[in-house]
Amino acid sequence: MAITQSDVVYTAVATAENGRDGRVATDDGKLDVVVNPPKEQGGSGAGTNPEQLFAAGYSACFQGALAVVARQESADITGSTVTAKVGIGKNDEGFGLIVEIAASIPNVDAATAKSLVEKAHQVCPYSKATRGNITVTLSV
Question: Which of 25, 68, 73, 103 is the most buried (most CB within 10 A)?
Answer without folding.
Answer: 103
